[in-house]
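Per-residue structure
===
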Amino acid sequence: MRPARRVVCRLVLAAGAGALLAASPAPGVLNGLRRILEGRWVGDTLELRIDQDAVLANDDPSKPFQWSALTIIDVSGSVIIFDIGARRYVGLLEGDRLTVSIGGRLGSHVLVRQAPQGAAGLGLRR
């Protein structure tokens, strides 16, 4: 490869990497978004549990101890794209209502945030 062509290739790669970094949400923004998603979201056929402190989530209530990495991919207004493990979600967040589509699957799911379970919700008495 000729030297001029190598320089052009390096510039294109550097510009592409810079564009990707610029498009990624800032760490402070990510923490705020994860905090907004925190909790248990329940729909007719889908349930998500998100623990923003551990940056983990569960999308299979039949396996309550199997948690996967939570990764925020992109945010634009109230639309949020995130991954739970290898599964991609595209969501529209409206208060305590989250409408999500799952990559590679037809349809969408409307989820509602459930109130956190405290001591009373666990059947414990004070």
Helices lie at 3-23, 27-37. The chain has one domain: 26-114. Confidence is low (pLDDT under 50) at residues 3-23, 119-126. Residues 34 and 52 are 5 Å apart (CA to CA).
